[in-house]
Amino acid sequence: MTGTDTTDTARLTGATAAAALALGDDALILSHRLGEWAGHAPVLEEEVALANIALDLLGQARILLSLVGDEDELAFLREERSFRNLQLVEQPNGDFAHTIARQLYFSFYQHEVYGELARGDGPFAPLAAKAVKETAYHRDHAEQWTLRLGDGTEESRSRMRAALDALWKFTGEMFQPVDGLDGLDPAALEQRWLAALTGVLDRAGLDLPQGPRTGAWAAGAGRQGLHTESFGRMVAEMQHLHRSHPGASW
Amino acid sequence: MVAVTPETGPDTALGADGTDGTDMTADLGAQLAAAFDAAVAADERVEPRDWMPDEYRASLVRQMAQHAHSEIIGMQPEANWITRAPSLRRKAILMAKVQDEAGHGLYLYSAAETLGTSRDELLDKLHSGKQKYSSIFNYPTLTWADVGAIGWLVDGAAITNQVPICRCSYGPYARAMVRICKEESFHQRQGYELLLALSRGTEAQHAMAQDAVDRWWWPSLMMFGPPDDESAHSAQSMAWRIKRHSNDELRQRFVDIAVPQAESLGLTLPDPDLKWNEERGHHDFGAIDWAEFWDVLKGNGPCNEQRIGQRRKAHEEGAWVRDAAAAYARKQTAQQAAQQAANPAGQNEEARV
Amino acid sequence: MTQNWPLWEVFVRSRRGLSHTHAGSLHAPDAEMALRNARDLYTRRGEGISIWVVPSTEITASSPDERDPFFAPSADKPYRHPTFYDIPEGVSHL
User: Fold this and answer.
1) In whole angstroms, how far apart are CA B321 and each of A92, A103, B211?
2) B52: nearest CA partner in chain C
């Protein structure tokens, strides 16, 4: 549990608030997707691992959203078009390979971002310093599974390859400039991300996918509030109960 | 002749060593049995490699497996609400709780494995219906308040059942239960707190809480098992100190604890016969519908098929993942062996841990 | 055809200055995953700062049948314990 019930802390405004929302929504939505695995994981040990990652992310989301406003109002009362998360993190879980591919792409990105923010002295530095330890573990989890699925059986290799290909088009968005995160150099970020990713895929005997990742709909769209169809259903499920009892406390 | 035949499974040094009794004389068998009975009666712990009667071993495997199965099947009714939790705080709590249940299942399967069985074998028995899990999880979670009712009543009943198992005669089971009980103390409290928020909330929230308690109360009482005079395994389990109190004793304890808690919640328990009996120093309560209990146990509960179906599906759909990791491990081992063969001098000595 | 993952024993050092103690066991395909699973399972409430994992099959244990030859002989050597010795009152630092 994080201490996010402190509502009186100075709230961020303007571009910095938008950035907090972007990072917070990434964490919130991915945590939700990972939470959908509960009771469905391929092995009990993995139930525990996926839940750990989901809980880390939810903790990050709560801190970030609370920097902007009331965490529950932001999570449960915003319309779909107001969410600022990457399209990547809202993609359905698919099979385990899809979940791992999504984790691989995102955790490598998130780790670079928080690493950079932790080194700076901006409003996100304290949060990032804590989160970067969590993302290092998430990255390791994704890497370990990528190696095992890539270099496991014929079936696992083809599933992993299909998953990497399917999600590739959503990765371009991560390297669009984000308002309020001006200290981050998207090009440098992308270079480091690609280098790290290529290293892992190499060891797993997998190729870097080749398709486009800056299409009209896929680049920078989530950050602008344009999402994919499955996201609306996810949000409906997430918000339904809260919205059914206006003003109630839980 | 006392035949000690642990169920087949991977033997491990910390687990059963599969002592076979082939050369044992009847005398020796009787001596062992007497020594075992004396040790248990003196409240000594039995450890995996100790001699133990077949029936003791079988009874433990049965109970621990059922307990482990209940933990992992029990994830489902609550996980049903993770994606709809009405606040982020509640969502974090619920995810952590469901995760704990997976962890508890793991502790218990591990403890059972010390008796010479394997998790795969036990899961197969769960999936094929040869082993049971707690019937309570065959009831549906229809509203958010059910998450609270499960925490307060179902976990409350489970804790009442489990605390005595921390002193169970079998060491690994007792140790697993100590860890579980320690972790579980938050489960019941979060459920109670959740219901309290609803009970003190809007009219609709209060009604939701009352409805959940109405539906979960009786099944929770059934969790303690059939009445003592109908309980098949109770007497022997008590003698072996696997169990320390009878079903009815524990049920009464739970009712006595729950009544004042319900009052503080501002909710009523759905039993017109529930009242304090000054003479007994306990609450009297109405007759339990045992026909329903046996019916659900037989597989006719609202969710039996659904629960086992989901469990089986997760296991089957996860097979390729487990296979991949095993294949990878084999390749790595082969690679390391090849490297060592090519470079026999090796870098030898690694630093001490 | 599913490959069963082997069993690992987990030892956790709860804080600096203490030795690793047996926490329980788990299944994992290999040592690296065993370590990670152990971290997730046995230290999620901050119970540890260091973990060992050992394949269960690699542990050699004494047998209960040999309990007497193994352990009984050490029971009758009270002179190994400091309480065996009478020291006059007033003598300190001993």
Assistant:
1) 18, 16, 41
2) C64
Q: For residue A237, give the chain B residue with the closest CA.
A: B84
N-term to C-term CA, chain A:
16
- Do A147 and A85 form a contact (C-beta atoms < 8 A)? no
Fold of C2-62: Ubiquitin-like (UB roll) (3.10.20)
Q: Give the residue among A53, A12, A54 at the shortest CA–CA distance from A32.
A: A54
Q: Give the separation between CA A238 and CA A77, rounded to whole angstroms.
A: 10
C33 chain-A contacts, CB cut-off 8 A: 45, 144, 148
pLDDT in tens, A132-163: 999 999 999 999 999 999 999 999 999 999 99
Domains of chain A with bracketed CATH = 14-244 (1.20.1260.10)
Q: Is the pLDDT of residue B345 over 80?
A: no
- The residues of chain C scoring below 70 in pLDDT are 1-3, 67
Written as six digits, the tokens of B214 are: 């109405």
The ipTM (two decimal places) reads 0.95
**Nearest CA among A103, A37, A2 for reference residue B102:** A37
Q: What is the mean pLDDT of residues B10-34?
A: 60
Q: Comparing C-alpha atoms, which of A59, A73, A72, A70 is closest to residue A23?
A: A59
Burial annotation A30-55 (CB, 10 A radius, 16+ → b, else e): bbbbbbbbbbbbbbbbbbbbbbbbbb
**Which residues 120-139 of chain B have a CB within 8 Å of chain C?**
120
DSSP string computed for B63-96: HHHHHHHHHHHTHHHHHTTGGG-SSHHHHHHHHH
Chain A contact for B330 (CB, 8 A cutoff): no
Q: Are the beta carbons of B100 and A47 closer than 8 angstroms?
A: no
- Measure CB to CB from residue B328 to each of C24, C29, C56 and give the nearest one: C29
Question: Is C13 in a helix, a strand, or coil?
Answer: strand
Global confidence as pTM: 0.91
Answer whether B118's CB lies under 8 Å from C57's CB: no
CB burial of residue A142 (10 Å; 0-12, 13-18, 19+): buried
B166-222 pLDDT, tens digit per residue, is 999 999 999 999 999 988 889 999 999 999 999 999 999 999 999 999 999 999 999
Compute the half-sphere exposure of residue B237: CA atoms within 13 Å on the CB side of its CA. Answer: 21
Q: Is the Cβ of C37 closer than 8 Å to some Cβ of chain A?
A: yes
- Cβ B50–C30 below 8 Å, yes or no? no
State the DSSP code for C21.
E
Of C5, C9, C52, the CB nearest to B322: C5
C interface mutation test: which of B47, B106, B180 has the most C CBs within 10 A? B106
The vertex-B164 CA angle with B163 and B168, nearest 5°, equals 120
**Which distant-in-sequence residues (6+ apart) come within 8 Å of B135 by Cβ?**
B219, B222, B223, B293, B296, B297, B301
Task: Please say whether the beta carbons of A101 and A160 come within 8 A.
Answer: yes
Shortest distance, CA B50 to any CA of chain A (angstroms): 29
Contact: C36, A49; criterion CB under 8 Å: yes
Q: To the nearest 10°, the Cα dihedral for A129, A130, A134, A140?
A: 30
CA separation for the pair B156, B270 (Å, rounded):
17
In A, minimum Cα distance to C34 occurs at: A45
Given the structure tokens 């939701």, which residue do they identify? B208
